[in-house]
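Box 4.2: Ligand-aware structure prediction
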Amino acid sequence: MSQPDLLSRFPRVRLIAGPTPIQRLDRLEQLLGDRRAGVSIWAKRDDFMELGGGGNKLRKLEFLVGQAKSEGCDTVIAIGGVQSNFARLAAAACAKTGLACELVLAQMVPRDSSIYQGNGNVLLDRLFGARVHILAKGEDASKFATDRASEITAAGRKAFMATLGGSTPTGCLGYVDCAFEIALQSAELGLDFDQIIIPNGSGGMHAGLAAGMVVAGKDPSRIRAYTVLSAENASLLATVDKTNVVLALLSKSERVGPKDLEISGTQLGDGYGAPTPDMVEAVAIVGRSEGLLLDPVYGGKAFAGLLSDIQNGTISPGTNVLFVMTGGSPGLYAYADALNSN
Ligand SMILES: Cc1ncc(COP(=O)(O)O)c(C=O)c1O
């Protein structure tokens, strides 16, 4: 069975037009000068998609909305943090595919400024027509969402529950596909990327990419992830489990263990959504050299990890590195206070 055929049996709606580009960041390389130690830095532009401002969650939503439609659901209930990119893109995907959308947004980050609570992703959620439920601190998002689903059922409709980050095994299939896409583009470019750099939040992107690489016969430890949500070991164990569940969903017999995946906890700082000076610097460097936007919660921290690991030699001099730009730039507006200090 060919690699794309492997995914064809899963219901899917198309939200992305085609492969996202891979571009060399040559202006950034120039700006870094000796700091880049001869490393070639490329970007996979998963922030460059036509729907809802784009971002990695659209890949998951192609399969999640596909599943919702195949189950006859008319409403998607998505759970996330207040500035969830997944929630924003779920709202956009529902608008595009004619589903109702309800967002249950929990207080996952201790930031109560009006820009954090009302600008950035939340502003766009409402513009995309979603019904937004912003919970109070400590309120149980799963319970709230389950109660809403029961009310929707009682009204004769059917809700599909999309839990945190869309990182169910079905959602992860979007990044299995991305692994195949990267393999094809690498062959076209005549390049073998030594490292693929990503942030790891709920771990679905990492698990999907890792499973896709295993299926494609490539070493998943080439993916170097920086956790932005859980502690290093917890993130590793959860991502190993997720990868194996995705492999099982694909009816593959291969399995991975903790030694097969690379996750670094060096960029977590004070935890999920907490800005770090290195993140602020990374966002500024990429903006000034390439005119590209990283986000403050995921890509900014992962890029800070990339720069730091080039400098300390963890990423070997002279290698080819692919940084997956995952979108999330609306979050910049919610962090204006942290970013303006630079
Ligand atoms: C912009 C962005 N990048 C990366 C991630 C991390 O993806 P995952 O949750 O699958 O680890 C997220 C998750 O919300 C995101 O919004």
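In the box above, the bound molecule is pyridoxal-5'-phosphate. The first helix runs from residue 3 to 8.
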